[in-house]
Amino acid sequence: MKLYTALINNREQLLAAFEEDGTAYLLEDLGLFFLDMNDFICNVTEEQKQGLYEMAQIGVNAPAYNIEELELLAPIVRPRQDVICLGINYDEHAKEAGQFSEEAFGGERPYTIYFSKRVSKAAGPKEGIPSYEGLVDSLDYESELGVILGKDVKGISKEEALDAVFGYTVINDVSARNLQTRHKQWYVGKSLDGFTPMGPCIVTADEVEDVQNLDIKSYVNGQLRQNSNTRYMIQTVAGAISELSQGMTLQAGTIIATGTPAGVGMGMKPPCFLQKGDMVVCEIEGIGKIENRIV
Ligand code: MG
Question: Average pLDDT in the 148-160 region?
Answer without folding.
Answer: 98
